């Protein structure tokens, strides 16, 4: 699973929420990713690997190099930064031009901020489901993180057209224990 998004969107925070201890143990300790961040989740019969690449302008040019070996793209967007939504859209659509059939989960992050756009506004701002040139609509799902961020991520994975092994059940079980 490749995790991308502009710098400051919340990619690292989202990944921290999937690790043991989650957000509670690491609140306020997230730093900008200067390169790569790798998280592996292990369930009894499968493993799900997440590769996050930093969202700084200097790193974005390398994003498309990783698409060929990617099964799923998780694209994280800062819903509260209206001024950067056009840039987030441009970067997402640039990626979809390289791999137009790649399943995408878009996480509308920071929905709790006062200036955040609604899910429908974000869907429109990113032109999800619209045709770009001669390409068919991207197979994208927009998921707003709920009060428990992990729930939104799990919902996103449930919508993916991929075999999920036992990872979703494992994440749900872990969430119930919290």
TrEMBL record:
<keyword id="KW-0547">Nucleotide-binding</keyword>
<dbReference type="InterPro" id="IPR027417">
    <property type="entry name" value="P-loop_NTPase"/>
</dbReference>
<dbReference type="GO" id="GO:0005525">
    <property type="term" value="F:GTP binding"/>
</dbReference>
<dbReference type="InterPro" id="IPR006689">
    <property type="entry name" value="Small_GTPase_ARF/SAR"/>
</dbReference>
<dbReference type="Pfam" id="PF00025">
    <property type="entry name" value="Arf"/>
</dbReference>
<dbReference type="GO" id="GO:0046872">
    <property type="term" value="F:metal ion binding"/>
</dbReference>
<keyword id="KW-0479">Metal-binding</keyword>
<dbReference type="InterPro" id="IPR053254">
    <property type="entry name" value="Arf-like_GTPase"/>
</dbReference>
<feature type="binding site">
    <location>
        <position position="33"/>
    </location>
    <ligand>
        <name>Mg(2+)</name>
    </ligand>
</feature>
<feature type="binding site">
    <location>
        <position position="55"/>
    </location>
    <ligand>
        <name>GTP</name>
    </ligand>
</feature>
<feature type="binding site">
    <location>
        <begin position="109"/>
        <end position="112"/>
    </location>
    <ligand>
        <name>GTP</name>
    </ligand>
</feature>
<feature type="binding site">
    <location>
        <position position="12"/>
    </location>
    <ligand>
        <name>Mg(2+)</name>
    </ligand>
</feature>
<protein>
    <submittedName>
        <fullName>ADP ribosylation factor like GTPase 10</fullName>
    </submittedName>
</protein>
<keyword id="KW-0342">GTP-binding</keyword>
<keyword id="KW-0460">Magnesium</keyword>
<feature type="binding site">
    <location>
        <begin position="5"/>
        <end position="12"/>
    </location>
    <ligand>
        <name>GTP</name>
    </ligand>
</feature>
<dbReference type="GO" id="GO:0003924">
    <property type="term" value="F:GTPase activity"/>
</dbReference>
